[in-house]
Design a protein that fits this description.
Layout lengths: L17 H15 L4 E7 L5 H14 L3 E6 L2 E2 L2 E2 L3 H13 L1 H8 L3 H4 L18 H16 L5 E6 L6 H13 L5 E8 L9 H10 L3 E5 L5 H12 L5 H11 L3 H10 L12 H10 L3 H13 L3 E2 H8 L3 H13 L3 E3 L5 E4 L2 H9 L3 H17 L6 H14 L3 H17 L3 H15 L4 H6 L2 H4 L17 H15 L2 H17 L3 H17 L6 H11 L6 H17 L3 H17 L2 H18 L2 H18 L2 H17 L3 H18 L5 H14 L3 H12 L5 H17 L3 H15 L6 H17 L3 H14 L6 H17 L5 H12 L6 H17 L5 H12 L4 H15 L5 H21 L2 H13 L17 H11 L4 H8 L3 H15 L4 H11 L14
Helix pairs in contact: 1-2, 3-4, 4-6, 6-7, 7-8, 9-10, 9-11, 10-11, 12-16, 13-15, 13-16, 14-17, 17-18, 18-19, 19-20, 20-23, 23-24, 23-25, 24-25, 25-26, 25-27, 26-27, 27-28, 27-29, 28-29, 29-30, 29-31, 30-31, 31-32, 31-33, 32-33, 33-34, 33-35, 34-35, 35-36, 35-37, 36-37, 37-38, 37-39, 38-39, ...
């Protein structure tokens, strides 16, 4: 009998796999040196993946590494969300309790979604940032935990992984950059059919250079012989090795089974059926042991001993005897913690499960569910709801399954496992009609429906409706990225609402559709919002009403900013306050502040945005925290306050990293690039833009990164690079987002690039196309940039187009100029148009220079100084030539510093043509002061203020201030009074000499 054979079924000798083990050890060495590593090991069932990982893990531990292992858990056809990460983090917490506590400090509420032992899960409205935030915090937790210790994180059986686990693993593989960390995942390659959900992840990993794939091949005939020798503890008969190798085809697990089965010369009697081979040892067990094995097979990949005892229904001594027999036959194994049992190999479990009769399977699931209901402590708390839902569902009992599935959906939502929540909600909808009416009537929205649309009903007393499940499923689909499924759900819901009208619910579903269709590239979402507005018009205030108004205002802010958008935002704020919808109120207020800034009510709008930023920070409303650190600096930049914008953006980078708001980070980097370009910090700007362009979370911030790299490349004369970046930026935004904030900047850059390449007709065509489509109100920031690019193109061409000049001038008249930066652009555009017509003047350009001297725009200042110098050189006055030379020296210094080659070359060409030397004149006095500094010091000595000095010398007050600071430094004095006293003492300025005599 097989049961009496004393042969080991597992070889104590590790056979083969030298190359694979070498790769793993090499990765371990790299990780120990501080370079995170990611590996994926694939192979067919039974080929030896687990044995390889065990061998590697043991060696890693001998080298001082901490090995944290978690396996994907299968319950019937279901997977537990994040189960392998929860298990691995528990192991890591046991091994490094202090380090893990320090790594999780301050984020325990969020990380408790994966590791409940850290505390209570954070509560609050779920948003698009939730999952990304959890993933980022998990990545940072692992990096910090692995800062001082080498950590090996093993995720086994990815073929069973839930969607959330796959997404988290992919996120880690893409983003881990620091720490002594090695992440290793295994999967069964023969299970990955064409439509298996793991296949897209494997394809993505193949594209990542940071991930290594290892595929385990079957054993050779020589390796099979060594494996059999280890199992039998003796050299096997060559003929038997040949037979086992032929029948197993080198599969390590089949070799084990055949080697044991063939002991005692019984090979010839074995069936050729794989399933029968796997069941041979099970059928050799005593009856009560076979019964326990069948019970275990239906309980999941691992079954806790107390739960198994409750379901098996055997006296404890009999149960232990049965388990001893199953473990002795190497069918079951005790779990590492010693609190449960699992099959030694999943193939055996699958064979035993397939051998169960349909009625037997549903009966076992019922007994599992009943045992778990009677004593919820039989399984870990974070698995209880999901396992109970699975047991009742597979017991085919809709009355019990429906509430259990809904409980599990609530728990998965709390863990940000929205893909699993969607699947459970779809299962609940499947069970809905089959469940008894009294069961459905007992369900309440307050328990199951977080997004329950208020409709005058009390969620604590009104029965849960099928539409409430659809609302939850629509949101879960959107948050999980399953937008097509979510869109289908909204369509079905709206069809039901046509039969049983409910305006508020219908409006709510139309708002969901308005968020889904743009993401799917179907439309811009306005028609859906218009329908929602029609449905709520005339109804009493409600949260749905506020949400409709807020969504409409947000759409208008992006597509048609203007008075209507401001009114919509104001009404959204008003309605949100009336119904106590705080999140909607903050969202609408932030939009309102931005709209007010665009409309010219700058200080009021900025104050509103700053207040929202502080309030959402205080309340930890994560979605709005991220938005406020993107939108506020964008508004500051739009009105020329680039330095303030940079300060808010730097604060934003710190906060998003601290709180895990990774999806906002690329936008912050993109906005930072824009403000740094404005401030003339181009090298820093290039780094920021490159960081945004490498975003993995979203394509639009990546497109913004390319856009600002294109701006820099154009300004530095790298036209080929500029064209490539511009094309990649456009592609990242796609053809469906025709928003002014994207369309106008890309059009401006396209015009400027075409002009630089001598394609004036293309530049004109681009401007005409944009203006023919119409400019929305309150788009001054981007419209001025477009008009300036077009006006400059006409000014630089040999023969300007009168029609184009007229079009630009007429459009400029419609733009407002309530802030200095917009007034400066207005003056600049007018001067460029006059230049295109051949009637610009030095006085006009002097006004433009003065306007820019008080702004944080050094490159723009250099460009208009170049224009002023060019205008001055047309004058016969010697002082004008001297002033032009001084301006060109300033332009050259700035262009050289920025690497703005076209401006540098233009400056050199202009100075050569005018026969000007740009070498600074030697000092004419012993103090080392330039001529202009002598003029300023003369006026300082006469007691003039900076403004008076500016008026006397026809320079700006800011330039006068710079000259005064330089003078104080050269004279080594600390005040204007000391400088005047020194000048008088040295007799630098004879009494009665007019200050600034002979200067313009």
């Amino acid at each position: 009998m097989l049961g009496s054979v004393e042969t080991m079924s597992v070889s104590p000798v590790f056979v083969g796999r030298a190359d694979e083990l070498g790769s793993l050890n090499d990765a371990l060495a790299r990780a120990a040196a501080g370079e995170p590593q990611a590996l994926v090991v694939g192979g067919e069932a039974g080929v030896g993946k687990t044995r390889l990982v065990e061998e590697f893990g043991a060696g890693a531990e001998r080298q001082g590494a901490v090995v944290a292992l978690g396996g994907c858990v299968e319950i019937g056809a279901d997977g537990l969300p994040f189960a392998p990460f929860s298990t691995a983090l528990r192991a890591l917490r046991r091994a490094l309790p202090e380090e893990l506590a320090a790594a999780a400090a301050g984020q325990e509420e969020e990380l408790a979604r994966l590791l409940p032992e850290l505390g209570e899960t954070a509560r609050g409205r779920h948003d698009e940032e939730g999952t990304a935030r959890l993933f980022e915090l998990t990545a940072r937790l692992l990096e910090r935990a692995a800062a001082e210790h080498t950590v090996v994180l093993v995720i086994e059986d990815l073929h069973w992984a839930d969607t959330s686990t796959r997404h988290l693993l992919a996120y880690l593989f893409r983003t881990l950059r620091t720490g002594r960390l090695l992440v290793l995942a295994t999967y069964r390659s023969d299970d990955i059919h064409r439509r298996h959900p793991l296949r897209p992840l494997l394809a993505e990993l193949d594209r990542l250079r940071t991930v290594r794939r290892i595929e385990l091949a079957r054993f050779t005939r020589e390796e099979v012989g060594r494996q059999i020798a280890g199992i039998l503890a003796a050299e096997p008969d060559p003929a038997k090795v040949d037979e086992i190798f032929a029948r197993s085809d080198g599969n390590a697990f089949f070799v084990e089974e055949l080697a044991v089965a063939c002991s005692g010369d019984c090979c010839a009697g074995l069936t050729d059926s794989l399933r029968d081979l796997l069941l041979v040892r099970v059928e050799a067990l005593p009856d009560h042991a076979q019964r326990v094995v069948r019970v275990t097979a239906e309980g999941g990949s691992t079954v806790e001993y107390p739960l198994l005892a409750a379901v098996a229904g055997l006296p404890e001594d009999d149960l232990i005897e049965a388990l001893r027999a199953a473990v002795g036959a190497n069918i079951l194994l005790a779990t590492p913690g010693g609190d449960g049992y699992r099959f030694r190999h999943a193939l055996v479990r699958e064979a035993v499960g397939d051998d169960l009769l349909p009625g037997e399977r549903s009966r076992l699931n019922r007994r599992y569910a009943q045992a778990l209901e009677a004593d919820p402590g039989l399984v870990p708390a974070d698995q209880r709801a999901t396992r109970l839902a699975s047991y009742w569902y597979h017991a085919h009992d809709p009355a019990k399954a429906l509430p259990a599935v809904l409980d599990a959906a609530v728990e998965t939502r709390a863990r940000h496992a929205y893909s699993e929540q969607l699947r459970l909600l779809e299962r609940a909808m499947e069970l809905w009609d089959a469940a008894p009416a009294e069961v459905r009537a007992s369900l309440r929205p307050v328990d199951y429906a977080e997004v329950y649309p208020p409709c005058g009903c009390d969620p604590e007393t009104t029965p849960l409706r099928y539409l409430d499940l659809m609302a939850e499923a629509a949101v879960a689909g959107r948050l999980s990225g399953e937008r097509e499924r979510a869109l289908k759900i909204t369509k079905r819901a709206l069809r039901l609402l046509e039969e049983d009208p409910d305006p508020l619910r219908a409006a709510w579903f139309w708002v969901q559709r308005s968020r889904l269709v743009p993401a799917l590239g179907r439309s811009d979402g306005w028609q859906e919002l218009a329908t929602a507005q029609d449905l709520v018009r005339g109804l009493p205030p409600s949260e749905v009403h506020a949400e409709v108004l807020a969504a409409s205002a947000a759409w208008s802010m992006l597509h048609e900013p203007g008075p209507d958008a401001i009114r919509a935002a104001e009404r959204a704020v008003e309605y949100a306050r009336m119904v106590g919808a705080e999140d909607i109120e903050f969202h609408a207020r932030l939009n309102l502040g931005g709209l007010m800034v665009n409309a010219g009510d700058v200080e009021t709008g900025l104050a509103e945005m700053r207040e929202v930023k502080e309030q959402v920070l205080d309340r930890r409303i994560f979605f709005e925290v991220g938005r406020s650190h993107v939108n506020l600096p964008s508004a500051l930049e739009s009105v020329g306050r680039s330095g303030e914008a940079v300060a808010v953006l730097r604060e934003g980078l710190r906060i998003v990293k601290e709180w895990g708001l990774r999806s906002n980070e690329p936008w912050i980097w993109a906005n930072l690039a824009e403000s740094l370009i404005s401030l003339g910090r181009w090298d820093e700007a290039a780094e920021a833009a490159s960081t945004a362009r490498h975003s993995v979370q979203a394509t639009k911030p990546r497109g913004a990164g390319f856009f600002f790299l294109a701006r820099l490349a154009l300004a530095r004369g790298r036209l080929t690079d500029a064209a490539r970046y511009l094309a990649e930026g456009r592609a990242s935004f796609g053809p469906h987002d025709q928003m002014p904030q994207y369309v106008l900047p890309f059009a401006a850059l396209t015009v400027a690039l075409a002009s630089a390449e001598g394609r004036i007709d293309d530049a004109r065509a681009e401007l005409t196309a944009v203006l023919d489509a119409g400019l929305a109100p309150h788009v001054h920031r981007d419209a001025w940039a477009l008009l300036l690019a077009a006006a400059t193109a006409e000014a630089d061409v040999r023969e300007a187009s009168p029609e184009q000049v007229a079009l630009i001038r007429e459009t400029a008249r419609k733009l407002a100029t309530p802030v200095p930066i917009w007034r400066a652009h207005d003056l600049w555009v007018r001067a460029e148009l006059h230049r295109a017509e051949g009637r610009d003047t030095a006085d006009e350009w002097s006004d433009v220079v003065t306007a820019f001297e008080c702004l944080e725009r050094p490159y723009d200042l250099a460009r208009v100084r170049h224009r002023l110098a060019e205008a001055l050189l047309s004058s016969p006055e010697p002082d004008d030539r001297a002033r032009a030379a001084e301006l060109l020296r300033l332009v050259r210094a700035l262009a050289d510093h920025l690497g703005a080659r076209p401006l540098l070359e233009s400056t050199a060409h202009l100075s050569q043509r005018a026969r000007l030397s740009l070498t600074p004149p030697a000092p004419t006095d012993p103090l080392g002061l330039t001529t202009r500094e002598q003029d300023v010091l003369r006026l300082v000595s006469a007691g003039h203020t900076n403004r008076q000095i500016a008026e006397q010398l026809f320079i700006s007050p800011k330039t006068a201030s710079v000259h005064v600071s330089n003078i104080l430094a050269k004279l080594s004095v600390s005040s204007r009074g000391e400088a005047a006293a020194l000048a008088h003492r040295l007799g630098l300025f004879p009494a009665g000499e007019p200050a600034g005599a002979g200067r313009r």
